[in-house]
Predict the structure.
Amino acid sequence: MSNSPSRPATIEDVAKIAGVSIATVSRAIRMPEKVAESTRKKVTAAIARTGYTANAMAQNLRMQRSKMVMVLAHSIADPNFPGILIGLEKAANARGYGVLIGNTEANVDSEEKYLRFLSTGMVDGLLLLTGHLPVAGWGKSPPNTFPATVAVSRPVSQDKIAYVGVDDVGGTKLATEYLISLGHEQIAFISGQQGDIVSEMRYQGYCNALTSHFKRSSPWRVAGDGTHEGGRAAIERLFIRDTLPTAFVCYNDDTAIGVISALRARGLNVPRDFSVIGFDDIQFASSMNPSLTTIRQPRVMIGETAMNKLLDRLAGGVDEAEDELLHGDLIVRESCSSPRMEPLA
């Protein structure tokens, strides 16, 4: 439904879109705890769609707790998202909160649409998995009406927003040190997209490991984009060179899978000819051939920790933007071994 700029949305508009009575809309706004969750969600969506805010009911609503939290995700197809969502919902349900999911696909229009939920007061807090504040036009500081917010999986460059995620630096340092323990010295890092903050943190962990173990560390960075095809392309570019590494630390598992695929297409064996290690431990990592050695993210725990941090703030807890980094575990499988003794023919 599209409203004329000269006519603000009315409660009748909301009722019509939600398919409920005006009385039900009123009850959902004033006493949401007395309305079925499915009905409340319909009313919430209708309010967001119409932009129904400029009335006394919406003002009353903003003074109450909606008992709902919004999760904005870059893509629900991200293999890490389901595990994190399980943790988010588990912690929310334990404390009487519901979860709304916004799948933005990095689309500004989508972000603006979901922001209407915030402006109506239909959600109490926000969990950001996008790596940035919605709507870049806000600049460095969000408006005063911006709700309590916690960033998840990807930090946000805003001082007042706490971050919960895996220790990307420590995890990649652990992965690189494992390869070093097997005897590798010529280790390349295949990155994610240029400017990706998570990729930069993982590259830092890789560099830290080299610096700790070698007097003259020589970081070897190869550009990727975080996808299977990006891993394949990185290998093709590497094989133009005269010298090659003996092992690869990959930005994520998708990249590592692409690397292994490209090496096998050249008739090379993993791990006999090259060792490959990933990051994330996605579902496919254990079933591929060879099974992938990787760093496992504690996805469910990340979700639980982030939700509890947000709800603690809503309950009047300490309002400090303290980050929490969770330890990633090294999962040893079949894709790594000692370096080859003879050079490739």
User: Anything to note?
Assistant: Residues 1-5, 59-63 have pLDDT under 50 and may be disordered. The chain is about 40% helix and 15% strand. Residues 197-213 form the longest helix (17 residues). The domain at 168-297 is CATH 3.40.50.2300 (Rossmann fold).
